[in-house]
Sequence to fold (806 residues):
Amino acid sequence: MNFKQTPLAILIASLSIGAYAADAEGEENPQSIKIEGKGVFAGGKMVYEEAARARATVTKFAIEEKAATSNAYQLIDKLPGVNAHSQDATGLFGGSLTIRGFTAGQLGFTVDGAPVNDSGSYDVYPQEYVDSENLEEIYVTQGTTDNDAPHIGATGGNVGLVSQKPSNKFRAKFAQTVGGLNMYKTYARVDTGALGPVKSYFSFSQSEADKWRGKGGAERFHFDAKSVAAFGAGHSVTAGFIYNKAENHFLRRARKSDWQANRYYDYTTTFPGRIINAGKADNESSLTNFYELNGNPFENYIATVKANFKLSDKVRLEIDPYFWYGYGGGSGGTTLAESSFTTGGRDLNGDGDKLDSVLVYAISKTVTNRPGVTTRLNWELNGHKLMAAFWYEQASHRQTRPHVLVDAAGRPTDPWAENVILRNDGQVYNGQSGGLDRNWKTETTVSQFTLQDAFSIGDRWSFLAGVRTPDTERKGITYGARSETQQAAFLTARGATESVSVTRNWNKVLPNVSAKFAIDDRSHAFVALSKNFRTPANFILYELIQDQTNTDAAKRNRDLAPEQSFNVDIGYRYQGDRFNFNGSVFHVDFKDRQAQRLDDDGSRRNYNVGDTTKDGFELEFGTSARNGFSVYGSASYIREKLNDDFVQFVGTTNASGTVRAAQVALPTAGKTMTDTPKWTLGAGTSYSKGRASIGLGAKYTGKRYGDLMNQESVPSMTVWDLNAAYKFANLGMIKKPTLRLAVANLFDKNYLGGIPSTQINAATLTESQLRVIDRGTQATISVGGSAPNYDIGAPRFSSIQFSAEF
Fold:
């Protein structure tokens, strides 16, 4: 089946089914499946929004349409400005996200108010968070970061996951989901009901699925709990706990040519056996792409408390402590030279010699301990709603790259890397990441004061003015190199005996102002202006340490300036009984815009693309159910232009200055920013009658570039999905028995999805294509290209869930 992939065609095809019925006269069928919540439209994909800024929300009803294993990216994929892709349809393997061209690492993610971006790199792992069955809503504030948000890496807004509150009555819920690829999810939850002033719930789930290409799969155990205690006159304490443990095999990222040759491109699935020959210099580098060596074991938990105290009729105090813990990381196969061990080498494979390059399992392991607290004092005074807030966090981020032996079948002897290869001096042997020895500890201390005033003038005008002052100190400590000899040389060159450290501090004053004008009871206009700021990622500190012994001419300007953005939103909303509309235009000025590339060794690196300008608009509309039909649509247009040429060094250099690298500028000014489609469209229509419902949706994503030079692009695509549900009559103790069907990629579209990391130039640039700033001592100048890597879009996938309450 072929569908013409134009914005107009997609909107017409997906919305025309329900457009007439949504406007028809008549009342909603009282027997249809209900959507709870005030002002909820389009099957739960829209709600009444009152904030004077761009904001979109999906509710529990819309969340339930998706497969039970869906991650947060999949649940918001049709919202305006959202460009979301998952590595597979189940959601268990993660994915990538941009909103208005901001990457997930430029957005602030919270779960019940606690920040969950990686404290070092700001990466987001959506498959780790709360079970979708326990989600109440997910909201997105595009472009503007909330004044009291606990983020130091958000230049592009917030994404907030809000879990359900416990039920007032005792109940038990069970859900079993099965699907293709041997997928299953077993979910169970118990609500205690009110036990005096306290009500709680506890849930667990176990999920598994095979990879859709190659061999391997994902296993996930998850536990959620929440308790709410109400006491006194207006006081309450809410405590939450989320635990997640998962082991995934990676789906191999592909270059465009790999995908064009084979949709099912992946790691090797058979292991030919170890290469072990006594007395010979064996090399097992041909075995490193075996799927069993490439995975992501990770364990984490989040503990949150929200204490709310009513000090008087006008004053409230909120204290929200949290603690985030994580352990694990991404792994891959590599080789380790037996001769790299000093004091005589090491026979790793037991063949009696020390001549080999031996296959081992290497994991980029991270252990994070992240306590923090946000405190707010809210005070109503003479028509003003005042807020004073303070956020404090102290994160410890220990990063290593240990190696583990591999058995005869090609499997790591310990995937979690607790039993690792040691040096001959008894210390852990750590590998490199991005050319640096990965044996680091980052201590990040953050403090932020916030002041905010919300007030109205007359019946129509309301204003919000705020300022926040994030102050971040990062201390990077590196403990040396891989072998004893290398470590001694590394430390001696820097005048140290045990470790080397560097500390940097960043702070900023960030104002945020918005105004809303009520046109009438159903519509309002707004304008919002905000300044946002992003502290550089932690690995910049270790690049600085690496450069400490180089001359100034050899440095690569690695001390990246903090990214800053100035955001302007102008919008209009109409919120009626039958129809809801949101529209906004936006402008963003970026200073020191940061992007991310993938080096040949698999390491991600930030780089500064200079200043950019972003302009666009977003539209969103939805209808309430009329004669069983409801309709949803969103449209976004974004154009982000690079303002500067990209400057870099090429060639070699040495400390004496006799060999000096050239400095060149790549002609990137005027190019389009990577992974930023001009057009994204989301659409859906749903119909419910009696106990049954059915929905059809589509998402169009326009062409995207994988490199700053715009030499390689990803074609546009449209992906459709289908959902259906039937609610049976209660049967004795069995309440709300419901059967749900979810089909992703309904027409089995073959496409390239996310761009997890981009490149500067995909193809080689010769000297005639460059602007030479400083030739150095280089006779010829060229800049080698590197093709971007992509996630291949998953094929059609179906799952069925049966759920019931007791």
